[in-house]
Amino acid sequence: MLNYNTSIKEDKSYPDLEMKEIKPIMKLIIRGKTKEFISAIGKNLSMLLPTEANTSTSGETLTAFWLSPDEWMLVSNEVVSEDTNAYEVENSLINNISKTNLGAITDVSDQFVIINIKGSKVFDLFATGSPFNFNEFKNKKGSVVQTILSHIDVIIHLTEINEVNLLVRRSFSQHLYSWLTDSASRL
User: Fold this and answer.
1) Nearest C-alpha neighbor of 159 from the set 110, 115, 128
2) Is the pTM here over 0.85, yes or no?
3) CB under 8 Å to 185, separation ≥6 — which residues?
4) For the segment 123-135, what is each residue's pLDDT rounded down to a tens digit?
5) Of 1, 20, 88, 101, whose CB count within 10 A is highest?
6) Paired sense of beta strands 56-58 and 62-68, if any
7) Which domains, from first to last, does the chain contain?
């Protein structure tokens, strides 16, 4: 059995804003360029990878974020068991992509923390610490952006209008969560 330690100790609620960690979620980085790679990924995942910047695609159990022309992050749509870190989809991709030299698969589940933030003040909160202009982003469900929030690299995925999943490196997660809660208390 794994010993899963969360870096975010409590959920927070403010008027028109709620924050909580979603754990544990499988997260994989997928890299590749060739047509054969794209075809093999589609067959293994039963979904197409997004091809446009700042977009995502979702299937029944997985969501893929476009990170660069040859890089995607794949996340599970549901929490996974804390008892194991062996994922069926990861094993399938390693066997059919990595071992056949079509691309690379890297498990980053423990590297990133996902913070779910929802409420009508989500983008007011982000405006206090990010240079990114969220005016168009906040109206396009499924949008993804890599930006800076309080001097920390983050990935933000718009799951619903006024609801995002924010991915941050574990080593920065406590600091960012502290900044988020402090800034939210001032809105």
Assistant:
1) 115
2) yes
3) 14
4) 999 999 999 999 9
5) 20
6) antiparallel
7) 12-185 (3.30.1360.120)
